[in-house]
């Protein structure tokens, strides 16, 4: 058997083998794309679950702080009589108000602008403290 005869006889076999290998490569690429797609879908679902969980916690905190304010208003104030020291009375209203405001603002920022990694580095603590003091002393 000469070299050309062997090449001619093996050609259909080699073509079939190449076609099978190409099919395997295409199937592997498709399965990798499907796996990538499934991972992206699960990531999106996880983000949605975390957002719902966060909103649930935030609403719980807001309701709890509103209940704390209502409790303070009904148990420590009897008409014109204040049953606790004035500093405590102010703190019992300011703390829940600041908490509710902060949670609401953070939810709005997260909902409309999305949080970024460097958000916590850009907080101006002095400005926030000054505004809180101005709001507390204005009453």
Task: Tell me what you see in this structure.
Helix 1 (3-75) packs antiparallel against helix 2. The radius of gyration is 33 Å and the shape is rod-shaped. It has one domain. Helix content is 81%, strand content 3%. It has a two-stranded antiparallel sheet with strand order 1-2. The longest helix has 73 residues, at 3-75. It contains 3 helices and 2 strands, in the order H-E-E-H-H. The mean pLDDT is 76. The chain has helices spanning 3-75, 86-112, 125-137; strands spanning 77-78, 81-82. The chain crosses the membrane at residues 50-70, 76-109. Keywords: Membrane, Transmembrane, Transmembrane helix.
Sheet of most strands = 2 strands, antiparallel
What would the principal axes of the Cα set say about the shape?
Answer: rod-shaped
Strand content: under 5%
Average pLDDT, to the nearest integer? 76
The total count of strands amounts to 2
Task: Return the structural class.
Answer: mainly alpha
* Poorly predicted ranges: none
Quickly count the helices.
3
Helix coverage percent of residues?
over 70%
- Ends distance: 107 Å
User: Which series of helices and strands comes N to C?
Assistant: HEEHH
Q: What's the alpha carbon Rg, rounded to whole Å?
A: 33 Å
Count of discrete domains? 1
Walk across the major sheet and give the strand order. 1-2
